[in-house]
Design brief:
The protein is 41% helix and 11% strand. It is an alpha+beta fold. The chain has 2 domains: 16-107, GMP Synthetase, Chain A, domain 3, CATH 3.30.300.30; 111-227, ACP-like (Non-ribosomal Peptide Synthetase Peptidyl Carrier Protein, Chain A, Orthogonal Bundle). It has a 3-stranded mixed β-sheet with strand order 3-4-5, with helices on one face. Strands 1-2 form a two-stranded antiparallel ribbon. Helix 4 packs across helix 5 (164-178). It is elongated and about 65 Å long. Residues 8-12, 112-122 and 211-219 have low confidence and may be disordered.
């Protein structure tokens, strides 16, 4: 309230944000990250309407470890899109993290630039290796709007512009195309393994199990006929 009796709203003190229609307590993400003993401090910010960025202070951790930890402990919509690892977070004179002095994130990590696309083409092992991976790759390109581009089969869905709503759309596309029940392959399994390579392995397991089931069913019928 100022001297004229007017109240100025300056935002929430608990750092609650709304991302893609869902309310998120940033402190919950921070507490999750601080569960890792190698992290001594961290801060999470909302960058735009679709992304969260996490700045962590550590000298003994990598991005994949951070992402895996979050995937195991947080809902998909609360997992930061980009993790920035710093030796020391900038502090203000009163000892708090100075958010204005945080280095800008590398936004190229959110999308596939022409350079990364070229690298993917040069490294043949990053391209789809079979028909199933090619189908999954095409679905990813359609959902992520990467028409005419290549996505590495080891790229993390959430590191190249994906978010929870798009992942749900991806999961439903899988169910429609490969005809499986969510009790057999839950969305959680795909979230824990968010690459084209890993998704192909999950979906391949369904095909193998179906073939074994059909073989056993046929064998059982044939044996029954012989007894008759």
């Amino acid at each position: 309230m100022n001297n004229n009796g007017l109240i100025h709203y300056v935002g929430r003190r608990d750092f609650q944000v709304k991302l893609r229609g869902q309310r998120i307590e940033l402190q919950e993400i921070i507490q999750c990250l601080l569960m890792l003993t190698s992290i001594t401090a961290c801060v999470v910010i909302k960058w735009d309407e679709n992304h969260l960025f996490a700045y962590v202070q550590s000298d003994n951790i990598n991005v994949e470890q951070l992402r895996h930890h979050c995937q195991c402990n947080l809902p998909s919509h609360m997992i930061p899109s980009i993790f920035i690892i710093l030796e020391k977070l900038p502090l203000s004179p009163n000892g708090k993290v100075d958010r204005k002095c945080l280095p800008p994130p590398d936004l190229s990590l959110l999308t596939l630039s022409s350079t990364s696309s070229t690298i993917a083409l040069e490294n043949r092992s990053n391209l789809p290796q079979n028909q199933l991976q090619k189908q999954i790759h095409d679905i990813w390109c359609e959902i992520l709007r990467y028409i005419g581009q290549q996505i590495s089969i080891t790229a993390n869905f959430f590191s190249i512009g994906g978010h929870s709503l798009l992942f749900i759309e991806l999961y439903h596309r899988y169910k429609q195309l490969y005809d499986f029940d969510n009790r057999v392959l839950s969305i959680a399994l795909f979230l824990q393994q968010p690459t084209i390579l890993q998704h192909s392995q999950l979906l391949q397991s369904i095909t193998i199990n179906q073939m074994k089931s059909e073989h056993w069913h046929t064998l059982h019928i044939n044996q029954g006929n012989k007894k008759l």
